[in-house]
Write a structure and sequence with these properties.
With 251 residues, the protein is an alpha/beta fold. Strand 4, helix 7 and strand 5 form a beta-alpha-beta unit. The chain is built from nine helices and eight strands. The protein binds zinc ion. The site of zinc ion (ZN) has 11 residues, from helix 8.
Length: 251
């Protein structure tokens, strides 16, 4: 592996001195490839911190434009950005955080036909979407194509987060094992749920932290549902096993 250059050595010095990171770990972060589906409250927060950590390749996917009501939680977007494309605007902002990162964006919705062409070159996929239709599609793709899927969902003060690798070991669950009864038709949007500004930020940060732990080769539990209550500051971890009847990961 090639050596880290002086600029990056200084830029990332405060994390390089951590035993679990070091120069090798920083190089892993710089060489990592992360796709973020959904550039809203979760996606902007995760993207900002992953970019600050030195992640060198991003793919940002969102077909939406920035709305005034997004600004309470979608960090990096400002009043001047209203009406602009979320994915393009986020890519421009991330470029200012790390000018050497390779950042691509897609201003379209994921479909079963396009998902493979968008996500194939990325090892870690962050599901930051707000609808079950997309979550089911991304979960199926990540299982079939052996991608690491990091998912988070928000409601008022509550966050649930999970890192999935349902293809990796027999008993690892997928998103559908957790929520066997949801379907895209039933609950098409989480749009109308209330979300506190800082709770959305923490939800994205948990995803970013899980991604960095995985990239650094640290301990990651693919069977653990994290439930964080930001009002009482309770963190619960719930063990989830593969659903033996799951139609997605137990075929
Ligand atoms: Zn499953």
């Amino acid at each position: 592996m090639k050596k880290i250059d002086d600029f990056n050595l200084e830029k990332y010095s405060r994390q390089i001195i951590i035993n679990e990171v070091g120069e090798n770990g920083q190089l892993k972060i710089i060489n990592s490839k992360i796709a973020i589906v959904g550039c809203g409250g979760l996606g902007t927060s995760a993207a900002q911190y992953l970019s600050m950590s030195g992640v060198g390749h991003f793919y940002l996917i969102d077909d939406d434009t920035i709305d005034l009501s997004n600004l309470n939680r979608q960090t990096l977007f400002t009043e001047k950005d209203i009406g602009k494309s979320k994915s393009k605007t986020l890519s421009e902002k991330l470029k200012k955080v790390n000018s050497s990162a390779k950042i691509s964006f897609q201003n379209k919705k994921l479909t079963s036909k396009t998902i493979s062409s968008y996500l194939d070159s990325y090892e870690v996929i962050l599901d930051c979407t707000d609808n079950f239709e997309s979550r089911i599609l991304i979960n199926e793709y990540c299982h079939n194509y052996k991608k690491i899927l990091i998912s988070s969902a928000l409601q008022s003060f509550d966050i649930q987060a999970f890192i999935f690798a349902s293809w990796k070991e027999d008993n690892n669950p997928c998103y559908k094992c957790l929520f066997p009864n949801i379907s895209g038709d039933l609950y098409n949007s989480c749009n109308e749920m209330g979300i506190l500004s800082s709770t959305a930020g923490i939800g994205g940060l948990i995803q970013a932290n899980l991604a960095l732990n995985y990239i650094l080769g640290l301990k990651v539990d693919f069977k653990e549902l994290l439930l964080f209550d930001c009002m009482n500051f309770n963190l619960k971890k719930i063990r989830i096993n593969k659903d033996k009847k799951c139609k997605t990961c137990n075929k």
